[in-house]
């Protein structure tokens, strides 16, 4: 395999960086959190943990 010039390595790095950023943004913005109603909030039980160190 012939050696790659530094500009080709840099363009490859830029390409992979852009793909990584776009992929992360697509995953982040595709997630839609569900909004809890007040009845659902009251059903959640709080568990108190007493840590004895």
From TrEMBL:
Q: What is its main location?
A: mitochondrion
- Provide this UniProt record's keywords sorted from A to Z: CF(0), Hydrogen ion transport, Ion transport, Membrane, Mitochondrion, Transmembrane, Transmembrane helix, Transport
Cite a single GO MF annotation: proton transmembrane transporter activity
Q: What's in the GO CC field?
A: mitochondrial membrane; proton-transporting ATP synthase complex
TM annotation in the entry: 6-23
Locations listed in the record: Mitochondrion membrane
Q: Which domain of life is it from?
A: Eukaryota
Keyword field contains Ion transport: yes
Membrane topology reported for the UniProt record: Single-pass membrane protein
Q: What Pfam families does the record point to?
A: ATP-synt_8
Binding partners and assembly: F-type ATPases have 2 components, CF(1) - the catalytic core - and CF(0) - the membrane proton channel.
Q: What is this protein called?
A: ATP synthase complex subunit 8
Q: Which organism is it from?
A: Sinopodisma rostellocerca
């Amino acid at each position: 395999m012939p050696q790659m010039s530094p500009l080709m390595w840099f363009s490859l790095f830029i390409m992979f960086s852009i793909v990584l950023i776009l992929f992360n943004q697509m995953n982040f913005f595709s997630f839609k959190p569900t909004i809890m109603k007040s009845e659902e909030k009251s059903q959640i039980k709080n568990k108190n943990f007493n840590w004895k160190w």
